[in-house]
């Protein structure tokens, strides 16, 4: 039985190495890493991604699939719920780094199954909502950067965070994680996290202005 980390890496997100570091820091012993690069989690189902297909082929009953959060599996409610259920049907245990969730098909108790399935549905719905909120924040950031010709010429102060850090902060804020915990996970000050929380569009605008 092995533990495999699946990482979906977009141009605006974390690296697979960063996701592995997070997983190992959370106590996971990773045997292998499977990563898709530059693939949309909204429009491309896991089984349609190059490494996603390999993941379905390599995992066997008793293996554990680790993901940073369910949004690595997809950003579409129907796709994420079906993907997790398919892995459970195959006897694969799905675990998340953030929030430490575990999904498996071992339980036969109908009440526990109902709670598990409701939680899967909730997290999948949140993943899709997050994707939609991200698009809106990016549009708002672009509009913010273009609002005034003078502002476009003057970049302002360079952000004290990288785009991967910004993405991590934004995602964890969406899951209502405490600001102190986010600051520790992202390696930022609590004040920086609070600034991003107060005006994410301005944060996106600053990254765009500096080409980050």
Order of helices and strands: EHEHEHEEHHHHHH
CATH architecture of the largest domain: 3-Layer(aba) Sandwich
Number of E-state strands: 5
Counting structural domains, the number is: 2
Blueprint (SSEs and pairs):
Layout: E1 3-9, H1 16-25, E2 32-37, H2 50-58, E3 64-67, H3 77-89, E4 93-96, E5 102-103, H4 110-146, H5 149-153, H6 163-174, H7 179-186, H8 190-198, H9 200-209
Parallel strand pairs: 1-2, 1-3, 3-4
Antiparallel strand pairs: 4-5
Helix pairs in contact: 3-4, 4-9, 6-7, 7-8, 8-9
Features:
Rossmann fold; Arc Repressor Mutant, subunit A; 212 residues; 2 domains
Verbal overview:
The structure is a single chain. By secondary structure, this protein is α/β, with parallel strands linked by helices. The protein folds into two domains: 3-109, Rossmann fold (3-Layer(aba) Sandwich); 147-209, Arc Repressor Mutant, subunit A (Orthogonal Bundle), CATH 1.10.10. It contains nine helices and five strands, in the order βαβαβαββαααααα. β3, α3 (77-89) and β4 form a beta-alpha-beta unit. α3 runs antiparallel to α4 and α6 (163-174) runs antiparallel to α7 (179-186). The longest helix has 37 residues, at 110-146. The N and C termini lie far apart (40 Å).
């Amino acid at each position: 039985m092995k533990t495999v980390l699946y990482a979906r890496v977009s141009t605006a997100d974390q690296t697979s190495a960063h996701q592995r570091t997070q997983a190992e820091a959370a106590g996971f012993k990773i045997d292998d890493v499977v990563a898709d690069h530059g693939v949309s989690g909204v429009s491309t189902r896991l089984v349609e991604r190059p490494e996603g297909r390999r993941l379905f082929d390599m995992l066997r009953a008793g293996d554990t699939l680790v993901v940073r959060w369910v949004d690595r599996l997809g950003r579409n409610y129907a796709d994420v719920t079906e993907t997790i259920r398919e892995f459970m049907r195959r006897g694969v245990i799905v675990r998340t780094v953030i929030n430490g969730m575990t999904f498996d098909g071992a339980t036969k108790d109908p009440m526990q199954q109902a709670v598990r399935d409701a939680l899967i549905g909730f997290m999948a719905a949140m993943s899709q909502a997050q994707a939609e909120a991200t698009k809106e924040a990016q549009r708002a950031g672009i509009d913010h950067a273009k609002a005034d010709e003078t502002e476009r010429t003057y970049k302002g102060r360079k952000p004290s965070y990288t785009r991967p850090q910004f993405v991590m902060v934004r995602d964890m804020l969406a899951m209502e994680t405490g600001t102190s915990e986010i600051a520790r996970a992202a390696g930022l000050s609590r004040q920086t996290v609070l600034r991003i929380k107060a005006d994410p569009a301005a944060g996106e605008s600053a990254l765009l202005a500096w080409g980050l």
